[in-house]
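Internal tracking record. Fields below are filled automatically when a chain is submitted to the structure queue. Please do not edit lines marked as system-generated. If the sequence contains nonstandard residues, flag them in the REMARKS field before resubmitting.
Queue: standard
Priority: normal
Entity type: single polypeptide chain
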Amino acid sequence: MARPGRRWMALVAVSAFTLAGCAFESGLNPAYFQYAPRVYDAKVPGRGAIEMSKAAQEESFSGNPTSFTGGGTTLTMPIGLITREAATTAFREVFADGVALVESAAGQAGYAAVVRPRVAAFDYQYNQIRNLGFAVTPIVEMTLSVSLSDASGKTIWERDFESGSVQGETYFLSGSPGEQISKTAHRALMGLMQQAADAVHRELRTRGSAADRSH
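SYSTEM-GENERATED OUTPUT FOLLOWS
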């Protein structure tokens, strides 16, 4: 019978081995967002625009984790597509007539506002230390930058929304650890996008109410 110490070492070795020297590729999966629609007291009149250039939509993240576990692995993820899907999903609840995805809003009229979302920073890790080596917890951290412009194209504000450390579901062994990171990244990004949507809704409703009072 193996002593407890040897069993612990064996589990660590197996878990680390499954993450050694691999390249993982994930895709867009809206089911990972765990999206719960917002119910606003009143939507912003008109239609909003989500502006993302073709290059922004095709942007891909590819990099290593910041953790020792899995340090030799690489994850590739279509961060632009995930951002696009999260933005169109979250912001369609803000505007009464939904949103349109445009590569450029320059010269286009008729939008109540233009929103430009972009993931400015992204890090991930396979955290094994917090589980004493017996399991792995996927953790992601990201920054979402959002620019809001009015109907004339004038910038109202630009803000960064920070996720902090977002933990996914802890697992013992996985044949697709990169997919566990992707699930957590989808959920974290949707959380940030809904924070941004709330901020945009508050801003535009406040401006609309002020405009009504001035007439």
